[in-house]
């Protein structure tokens, strides 16, 4: 199946580039509300599923044992920019466990927020795993490991070692949660290694959308899991800065919409979202991995599905129908959701 064009890039009023992709919107019963392109092909959702991966953190009792705050829980769902607040929050979680940065197995990369990066370089500072955009998620994994260790009389730091492996008890719980939410048997799914070194599984967009419909509604979930999903969504709504960072789409949109929308980007042009008031979940993939295109498609979906005030509509239109200017401030083109995408979304309302 050839996927349709979801997003167009304009130059001087002419289409310069086209981004094809696929999109699925489903309800919590698995009913298909909107489909474009091949939604049955497994794709690697990457960081878009961090909220699903964080469910064991709350379900296990680890979040309660160590009194994790909204900011710390939101960071567990985050692909953050490595700003000082993100780094300090992840470090605080580890300190409460009696551990330090060496417990993290996500690897090291520099902050993605350029002013922060430049400041660190000017001061002669070095990046650590705490600056990794996945350090909050991994701090959550370490919390789960410590909870398991204490429950079984094991030494926490020793038990946590190797938690990124597919066969480690922590990762088995994470994988089981994702399988249960999406309805996909991940034992039979394609498997690869994510950028932060944990396993990533090939899941069809329809399954991902189902997982997020359940995340947003709690429908079809056991009470403990439904409560965990609600706790994570509320934390992200209260602390949206922690989910991404300054001038990032996920943070800005959740600041504007609160609990009405939980959205999360993943590498290579993936987006997943829960729309609790509608009981819907959404998943999309841009074929060429374009982040700008994924944001445009996600913004168009939110515009079509949610009732918005003027400020909210203006914010989303800044992504779904983006005006581009050059370095001299001259208008040169734009980025826009395609007519086919907007028509399909309109028909799904």
UniProtKB/TrEMBL annotation:
Entry keywords, A to Z: Hydrolase
Pfam families: Asparaginase_II
EC number: 3.5.1.1
Molecular-function GO terms, alphabetical: asparaginase activity
First-tier enzyme category under EC: hydrolase
InterPro entries attached to this UniProt entry: Asparaginase_II (IPR010349)
Hydrolase keyword on record: yes
Name of this protein: Asparaginase
Organism: Roseateles violae
Organism lineage: Bacteria, Pseudomonadati, Pseudomonadota, Betaproteobacteria, Burkholderiales
